[in-house]
């Protein structure tokens, strides 16, 4: 980049801009800037020309108009390879601008603040910035456009090395710039279209503008004839699957990622050391224990057959004992917040096992800090279904005992455990549990009766007795027959949401069978 070139710098977030501008100056680049940024650079003894001197117009309308001028946009948009463009610049006394450095008014940060007013939001909608960015990004072959401070070092390094910016870097900066403008406009649309005529704010915008960043292309989708890619939120939360670091193993597949998400969401809902084994999106074994090894040993007992080739998640560091136990079976994906060196050494001989480390946020307590989604989205034909995520957590105080038999303290703990697991099982869901482990899981059946029967059958195949177990049903029992099935299998206490027109019939059946029944008041369908 030769000394005759010009950089226009106009930034809202001034982090690192002085150092960047100083480096440009040392490389012989002329500095052009707007009001606040120009004053900052001047205070740092950098030679800078204000845009107002170039355009011949002062900044006006409280800064709303400062760069919307042909001497700015002509300098950005003119193609250097077209004589007609360059003649037009010469005719009107317009100089070229070769590097644009812009970050936008902090609209997203402003509307995220509690109590933000519509007036504050409107005043933080940038107009001149996006216009300049679009001009520069369109003319990427002649103009480099920098929209993030994270790009400063790369730009300076390339100029130092080559004396200019390569087409490869300019194009990537252009793509990043258009992505930034797209995300910015989407945030504005999302916010404004949530506001109703009476000034109230809806949870759901009038237009949904999804913003996701591609992490990688996948070999294929659910099946080999489908194509697929893996995306993350624009700003992913700590402790979420998309932040995982893969320590070893084959490339993740579409199904691996979907099942891993199901396992991770379930396991991180437990405060105690826990292990979750998932197969085809359903937990087939869940347990808590004194440590990772104890939790795994109990979870594996639930359904050793289904655990073969499963996805295993821990909410504690995997140590040598846990690793040695897991390594005895075929596992597709193993994930945890951490692994000891000894544990990783166990899997070095199993190079295909995918090991994911997902760092939990330090001191995080909110749903978002725990990596939970605020919204769930399901794609349908030519449309979307959007809902708030099922982040409801049931507490002991929420339970309503409706049977004559009162549950014991241990049964109450088993019921809460069973309920937590049922939340992550595909509907219709019936889950038998005892002493902090699943004993039988019935998932995804059209009939609740069939789910109950399958859960008891699977327990039998695993050699587990259901005598004295607690049962969770993710939705109400429409008739007493479902209750009779789980009691016949050995259950002595049941948790269900209630809400059926036949609730009393089912409660009476519980009293007749001599089992405890509690209502959660909350349904956990999962489709």
Distance between the termini: 57 Å
Radius of gyration, Cα only, in angstroms? 30 Å
The pLDDT mean sits at 92
Going across the biggest sheet, name each strand in turn. 8-13-12-11-9-10
- Relative strand content: 15-25%
Structural class: alpha/beta
Shape: elongated
The number of E-state strands comes to 21
Helical content, roughly?
25-40%
Q: What ranges have pLDDT less than 50 throughout 5 or more consecutive residues?
A: none
Please describe the biggest sheet, giving its number of strands, its sense, and whether it closes into a barrel.
Answer: 6 strands, mixed
- Count of helix runs: 19
Description:
There is one protein chain. This protein has helices at 17-26, 35-43, 51-55, 70-77, 83-92, 107-112, 118-123, 128-138, 152-162, 167-192, 254-267, 292-302, 304-307, 320-326, 341-347, 409-422, 448-461, 480-489, 503-513, and strands at residues 6-11, 30-33, 48-50, 99-103, 144-146, 212-218, 228-233, 245-248, 274-279, 282-288, 310-314, 331-336, 354-357, 375-380, 383-388, 400-401, 430-434, 437-442, 469-473, 491-496, 516-519. It is an alpha/beta fold and 527 residues long. The strands form five sheets. It has a six-stranded mixed β-sheet, with helices on both faces. Strands 16-21-20-19-17-18 form a six-stranded mixed β-sheet, with helices on both faces. The chain is elongated, with a radius of gyration of 30 Å. The mean pLDDT is 92.
